Predict the structure.
Amino acid sequence: MKALLFNSILPPILWCVLHLWCLTLRKKILNPEIYNEIRNQRGKAVLTLWHSHLFYLTYQFRGMHDLHILVSPSKDGDLIANIGKIFGYKVVRGSSFKKTVPGTRECISLLKQNLKVGIIADGSRGPRHQAQAGTAQLSRITGAPVYTLSWDASLKYECSSWDKFILPLPFSKVTVNFGAPMNVPRDADKETIRQKQNELTALLNQITEACKPS
């Protein structure tokens, strides 16, 4: 029954709710040139964001058919995956905790085909707002640039979950921000990967802070 609910019943209902909800929001993009580069230029790229900021960015990039999103293979991930498919995304199943190798291999294959992959920087379980190694490793192996994505809202609700998932209140103002592409050398060693993780963490926090209402 839960499988039927998550695979067939809830996804179209939640898609409608999310779509109508986001239509009420007033949007401002701080770096439209980077957004247009991500959205319109063909070629490989890794797009990454904090888990807590998934809600609005799922809507922002709807219909981007060359973007494949990495989703946890958990039951809850089934729901996210099915909503993502309705928004036009291709879905790769995998995480830092389960089925890591198949998901990573598929992401590498897609990037080598000059497609784009979306990955959560702090994973499906955290620690919150600390970039894990997966994003940097994908860039190292494939040579794909990493783009950071974030947003904030003038009025929002912060959930009590591990990531403090945020929801913009209807009719609030949403500010969206994008960081300049970051590259990881193909010969990067473990120390360089750690440095790139720290750089990614700092950049995501920086562009998130810039979105906060004044």
Summary: The chain has one domain: 2-211. The longest strand covers residues 146-153. Residues 96-100 have pLDDT under 50 and may be disordered.
